[in-house]
Amino acid sequence: MQTGTVRAAAALMLIAGAALAGQDDVILEVTGDISDGKVALDREALKALPETTLETSTVVTDGTHSFTGFLMRDLLKDLGAEGERVIASALNEYVVEIPMTDFTEFDVIVAYSMDGEPLQRNDKGPLWIVYPRDEHEALQDIRYDYRWVWQLSRLEVQ
Ligand SMILES: Nc1nc2c(c(=O)[nH]1)N[C@H]1C(S)=C(S)[C@@H](COP(=O)(O)O)O[C@H]1N2
Ligand SMILES: [Mo]
To answer: In what order do the strands lie in the sheet with 95-99?
Structure first.
């Protein structure tokens, strides 16, 4: 991937922001140890990242589902993130700390769709951190279940 794709999209958003207020809703804010200190990303900026799909079961749904989104490590690389951990926060005030190594060891995705349908705010959306739980026995553990943040709205790199 071309480094900086999301950063460029975020900069464009800032320029267009005033004119398009309300239309290009920010769905993810990233702060902390990243190149620009703080970025606000809308759906379009996130779609600039390579799309990836993951088939997995979850602890909160029946059967397996197909999740589409982008790799967490692609986003973090694009933003120039450097750190040991990411603090992920959700719309419902849920907060959890995730070690950076999760994203290098596993293909953890940030999903915006499930079974081809955009994730809705009232049902785990707009973004949901999804681990490839069926591919790795190590991930079938409560320690990782905590990190499947749904209604994800903010990442703080530390
Ligand atoms: N946004 C958000 N994500 C969350 C949570 C939450 O309360 N809010 N709970 C976490 C926990 S503690 C677990 S075990 C899994 C499954 O949560 P559940 O068993 O409460 O449904 O989702 C995780 N993601
Ligand atoms: Mo939990």
So the answer is: 38-42, 26-32, 152-157, 85-90, 95-99
Residue nearest (by alpha carbon) to ligand 1 atom 9: 146
56-77: average pLDDT = 97
Structure tokens, 114: 């499930």
Residue range 140-148: mean pLDDT, rounded: 97
Quote the ligand 1 centre to 145 CA distance (angstroms): 7
Structure tokens at 120: 């809705």
| Closest atom, ligand 1, to C-alpha of 60 | 21
Domains of the chain: 3-157 (3.90.420.10)
Residue 92 CA, ligand 2 centroid: distance in Å: 14
